[in-house]
Amino acid sequence: MGSESEFDFDFYLLAQSWAASFCCKKPQLCASVPEVWSSSHLCLHGLWPAYFKNKNNKQWPSECPTQHAFKKTVIPPLALSYAPNYHGGLAKHEWKQHGTCSGLPADAYFKEALRTMLSFPRMDRGTPKVIMASIGGEVDLQDLRKAYHKQVGIKATKEGVLEEITSCWEKRRDNGKVGQQIDCPAFVMKGFRNNVCRKGKCRKTVKVTKLGECDFRP
User: What are the residue ranges in the chain where pLDDT is below 50?
Assistant: First the structure.
């Protein structure tokens, strides 16, 4: 168990996954089919408390002592669509690793994660329209970044296939919940969560895989 305590963090990371890419890498854990919402939208991976500056050689706390318990009943009904893997064990993992450090009760933590994902302006329930229009093809990274208005991390496979997008959010000082979106700090933008840029050079596009199409040729 980590030595961190509840509420002892600076801001939140919101990680959203592209299910089609995940299903190609780990088909045994895939919870999406072509007919469902998650086949054409970014899904919720998790909401993670984080530090602006490295603390105890870590950028985020994990497995904090907490009086709040996890039960499957705390998973919001909306997660069935917006976070399909939560009902397969991901929710328990996210709570243990990250939610325990938020200072929020488990039900409030998961509701806050979904609320934050759905709060992006001018998007389709957390997904930029430029992604939805590019399924089966490629999306221009400049266009994708413009959709967020703030700096976000974009993660892709070595073949250039979109995997995940990480956005950053204020921690409200009055109640520990999520505030406004902010620019992601340097450790996100220069790290593996923004691996489309390396040593000052960035990809121009990433592929947006269609669910079930896993031929990742460079």
Answer: 1-3, 218
